[in-house]
Amino acid sequence: MFNFIIFIFNFIIFNFIIFNFILFYFILFYFILFNAIQFSQYSTSDPLELTRSIILYS
């Protein structure tokens, strides 16, 4: 029973760490995307220009 409790506890901590990493990269990606849209010189509807801005400001 005690082993089971420890297993659950470790599982929760492990999932929390992985979730935090995913959340961090998700926020980072959106921040880069937002900067690219904000600083793109031409219309953001052009996918090539948007890609160039993402590469430029990442």
Overview of this structure, please?
This protein is mainly α and 58 residues long. The chain has a domain at 23-58. It is 84% helix and 0% strand. The chain contains 2 helices and no strands. The chain has helices spanning 2-39, 47-57. Helix 1 (2-39) crosses helix 2. The longest helix has 38 residues, at 2-39. It is rod-shaped, with a radius of gyration of 20 Å. The N and C termini lie far apart (49 Å). The relative contact order is 0.10. The chain crosses the membrane at residues 6-33. Keywords: Membrane, Transmembrane, Transmembrane helix.
Regions with little confidence, pLDDT below 50 for 5+ residues? none
What integer is the average pLDDT?
76
The coarse overall form would be rod-shaped
Give me the strand/helix succession.
HH
Which radius of gyration do the C-alpha atoms yield? 20 Å
Number of strands: 0
User: Biggest β-sheet: count, sense, barrel?
Assistant: none
Instruction: Tell me what portion of residues adopts beta-strand conformation.
Output: under 5%
- Treating each run of at least 4 consecutive H or I residues as one helix, how many helices? 2
Transmembrane segments: 6-33
Keywords: Membrane, Transmembrane, Transmembrane helix
List keywords for this structure.
single chain, 58 residues, mainly alpha, 2 helices, 84% helix, rod-shaped, transmembrane helix, transmembrane, membrane
